[in-house]
Amino acid sequence: MTGPTRTDGPSYAYLGPEGTFTEAALLQVPGADAARRVPAATVGAALDAVRARSVDAAMVPIENSVEGGVSATLDAIAVGEPLRILREELVPITFVLAARPGTTLDGVRRIATHGHAWAQCRNWVDAHVPRAEYFPSSSTAAAAFGLAGDEHGYDAAICSPLVAERLGLAVLAADIGDVADAVTRFILVGTPDALPPRTGADKTTLVIPLPDDHPGALMQILDQFAARGVNLSRIESRPTGQFLGDYFFSVDADGHVEDARVADALKGLHRISPGLRFLGSYARADRRSPAVERHTSDDAFEAADAWLEGIVRGGDGDRPGRS
Ligand SMILES: O=C(O)C(=O)C[C@]1(C(=O)O)C=C[C@@H](O)C=C1
């Protein structure tokens, strides 16, 4: 990615080139169609542009309903200069097999695409082009663009119908994803000075290093959420890369850090795992509010704090003591 210059209005990096599903996610952000958009070759490069403050935020994929977590993103946001997730976007995923006009399905020997896209079309490929080999590409759109050049080394690309159309490629087969209704979740990542407001239907993303290797370490972590009635919508373990068996957990929890139950769980987690990294609280794309039990509501936490304060001040907790 070349060093972009700042202009007025927000600017966004994204996993490019133009025509990726990531760009489609970015275009769902209000105002992004008119903003400066900077395609990056990799997720790491998009996030580095945020860290270098050459863009305001970057859109990157984090999770797919079929293939699971996007390791490149989970790992890149877990280390280095801290970042903040500002919002999430969901994009329905539909793949086509595209090639230069004149190519037939029988003539396809090598198919280029992003690893996550390949994983989502594996059964279709096995059934319809069993001899075809996988040719890795940095994105579905980069694979499609490659077909337009002379040096591509492959005969077809798995990409979005839109990019195939834009580049004038022939669609050899449409809707080739193994699971209908596949969805990828994307995150808009900015710098730590921003904390999106609480909406009542929020998500909090955390990176939790496993404190030390002892029986029940994971249980201790999960207990912090369970005891405060905080539901987890995603938990994945990722190797830290330091040594074999050293892992961190990447977690999405229902709620905002300004919800008392979430704040209390975070304090508990920090005592257990001081290397805990807060990656942001932001509105859920589906706007679904969690069911909060009475004893984990903000009111219940506030009443408990007041009760304890009363005791410390010398009352019995029910009656105010000396102040
Ligand atoms: O290659 C693209 O078009 C992307 O935006 C990347 C990506 C991913 O990383 O999962 C996004 C959505 C699809 O699930 C496949 C690929």
TrEMBL record:
Keywords: Amino-acid biosynthesis, Aromatic amino acid biosynthesis, Lyase, Phenylalanine biosynthesis. PROSITE patterns: ACT (PS51671), PREPHENATE_DEHYDR_2 (PS00858), PREPHENATE_DEHYDR_3 (PS51171). GO terms for biological process: L-phenylalanine biosynthetic process. CDD domains: ACT_CM-PDT (cd04905), PBP2_Aa-PDT_like (cd13632). Gene3D superfamilies: 3.30.70.260, Periplasmic binding protein-like II (3.40.190.10). Residues 11-191 form the Prephenate dehydratase domain. Pathway: Amino-acid biosynthesis; L-phenylalanine biosynthesis; phenylpyruvate from prephenate: step 1/1. NCBIfam families: PRK11898.1. This is Prephenate dehydratase. It comes from Arthrobacter pityocampae.
